[in-house]
Amino acid sequence: MFCPKCATPNTDGASFCRSCGANISLVPQALTGQLARPSEQTDLTDESVCAVPGKSRRPPTLDSAFRSVFMGIAFLLISIALSRSIAQAGGFGC
Ligand SMILES: [Zn+2]
User: Fold this and answer.
1) How far is ligand 1, taken at its centre, from the CA of residue 75, in Å?
2) How far does residue 10's CA lie from ligand 1's centre (Å)?
3) pTM reported for the whole predicted model
4) CA 89 – ligand 1 centroid, Å
5) How far apart are CA 17 and CA 35, in angstroms?
6) Predicted local distance difference test score (pLDDT) of residue 61
């Protein structure tokens, strides 16, 4: 396995790079995707407040995406309504 910092080839299972001393013990885990697991826990603690407990096993990416889209649309509508009301209040002098 190669060091991500200096690209020095190290033996598999080595914890530190023999050239620059960087911690490469997490490199094989990152390559196999094991580092992605702790993010699920953060998602659970983050979403379990608002989400249904039964759905906590599924990653709520679509749900949060829809939520953000709706929030964006709502913000857009509100801003349009505000700008219109401001334009009417100002009067364009017709
Ligand atoms: Zn290195």
Assistant:
1) 48
2) 8
3) 0.33
4) 65
5) 20
6) 84
Q: What is the pLDDT of residues 12-67, one digit of tens each?
A: 889 999 999 999 888 777 777 766 555 555 555 555 555 556 555 666 788 888 89
Length of the chain: 94
What's 8's DSSP letter? -
Say what the pLDDT of residue 46 is: 56
- Contact between residue 51 and residue 63 where contact means Cβ atoms under 8 Å apart: yes
In angstroms, what CA-CA distances link 75 with 26, 43, 51, 57, 93?
A: 42, 25, 22, 30, 29
At 62, which amino acid appears?
A: L
Calculate how far, in angstroms, residue 28's C-alpha sits from the geometric centre of ligand 1: 15
DSSP state of 57: G
